[in-house]
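Q: My labmate handed me this sequence with no annotations at all. I'd like to see what the chain might look like in three dimensions before we decide whether it's worth expressing. Could you predict it?
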Amino acid sequence: MWNTKKSGFLLLLLFLVVLVIGINAGEVAAVWEKAVNICLSCVGIG
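A: Here is what I predict for the chain of 46 residues:
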């Protein structure tokens, strides 16, 4: 039982570290721009 809790905690910690690295690298703006372009293409505007 302890091993499962430890694995879950380590995965959560890894996720948070990677999330912070991505935010600091400016990936949020890049992903947002791509999402907007895809949505505009689907509607027929872009």
